């Protein structure tokens, strides 16, 4: 039976892998993202319905939810994939900006990118969730071992108690809420142009199976969590990192 699946950040990386997998299984997929051309390309390939929206903004999240509600009535799966290390996209503030202001800018950007995107969309769609629906939030290995700057890992870690509280609130309706925390994963835009061969080898070396993760690895875990087989799995943080934690 076809389900209605909503994937934020569904145009690239892990979100795209989830979209492709769901579409192959016959699900009706709605992908949400900020970049119209990226969403259009994935929608054309998969048959997904695309909504251009920045769910870090309340109005955009509510607009997307209203469109989904009007078109589909209810949803069966919500995958909150939108996010990333927003610090990588921040402009250099210059030498006159002090350390407190720099830290504040980094934390504000990452909390918006990784926490508010998930919270806004989830709360906007909450009343549209069908009984026995599945909700998945994307965290990171950085939530457990840090990210070098604090703000990215901290923002991802904030999703963990949110998911647990949400699982408790929605559990009586048979709705599960889980978190997937990937490690180093290729086929994503996460590192932008900062990845070097040396860093790649270091990250691969941290995995016990001595390989990088792939977007399809994470998508497969998400697909299982959203399947009927995982109906008794909720309020969990599932790591997909080849055993890299705690790394070195």
TrEMBL record:
CDD domains under this entry? SDR_c
Do you know which Pfam families this protein is assigned to? Answer: adh_short_C2
Q: Can the keyword Oxidoreductase be found in this entry's annotation?
A: yes
In the UniProt record, does the keyword Protein biosynthesis occur? no
Cited SUPFAM superfamilies? NAD(P)-binding Rossmann-fold domains (SSF51735)
Q: Which domain of life is it from?
A: Bacteria
State the UniProt keywords alphabetically. NADP, Oxidoreductase
The segment(s) forming the Ketoreductase domain are: 3-183
- Give the Gene Ontology MF terms in alphabetical order: oxidoreductase activity
Homology family: Belongs to the short-chain dehydrogenases/reductases (SDR) family.
From the Swiss-Prot or TrEMBL record, give the protein name: 3-oxoacyl-[acyl-carrier protein] reductase
Higher taxonomy: Bacteria, Bacillati, Actinomycetota, Actinomycetes, Micromonosporales
């Amino acid at each position: 039976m076809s389900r209605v699946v909503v994937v934020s950040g569904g145009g690239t990386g892990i979100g795209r892998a989830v979209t492709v997998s769901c579409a192959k299984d016959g699900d009706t997929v709605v992908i949400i993202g900020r970049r119209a051309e990226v969403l259009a390309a994935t929608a054309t390939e998969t048959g997904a319905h695309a909504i251009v929206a920045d769910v870090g903004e309340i109005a955009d999240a509510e607009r997307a939810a209203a469109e989904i509600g009007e078109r589909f009535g209810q949803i069966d799966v919500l995958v909150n994939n939108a996010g990333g290390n927003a610090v990588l996209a921040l402009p250099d503030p210059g030498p006159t900006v002090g350390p407190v202001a720099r830290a504040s800018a980094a934390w504000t950007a990452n909390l918006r990118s990784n926490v508010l995107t998930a919270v806004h969309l989830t709360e906007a769609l909450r009343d549209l969730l069908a009984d026995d629906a599945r909700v998945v939030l994307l965290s990171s290995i950085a939530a457990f071992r840090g990210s070098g700057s604090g703000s990215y890992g901290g923002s991802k870690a904030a999703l963990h108690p949110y998911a647990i509280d949400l699982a408790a609130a929605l559990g009586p309706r048979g709705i599960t809420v889980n978190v997937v925390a990937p490690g180093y994963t290729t086929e994503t835009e996460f590192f932008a142009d900062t990845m070097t061969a040396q860093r790649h080898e270091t990250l691969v070396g941290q995995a016990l199976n001595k390989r990088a993760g792939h977007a399809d690895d994470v998508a497969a875990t998400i697909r299982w969590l959203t399947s009927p087989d995982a109906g008794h799995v909720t309020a969990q943080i599932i790591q997909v990192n080849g055993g890299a934690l705690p790394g070195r």
